[in-house]
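Lab manual, section 2.4: Encoding a predicted structure.

Procedure: take the sequence of the chain (61 residues), apply the prediction step described in section 2.3, and record the output as structure tokens. A sample record is shown.
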Amino acid sequence: MKKIFPCALSKLYNNCGEFQLTTCLDQLCQVEGMTGYVMKGKCFDTGLPDAYRQTLIDFRL
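Recorded output:
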């Protein structure tokens, strides 16, 4: 996972100011492959301030 940090530092934000880890994960997957696990449940977004705020509200309830 250490190899993701150089990519993350170079592509930290997209045009909306949102943290873009997905782009880096896609690039790393193309080079090295990746194993994942699909989970059931609700997805929470923390990439934008308003979405992060809503996530905190949802977790509180």
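Check your result against the sample. The chain has one domain: 4-60.
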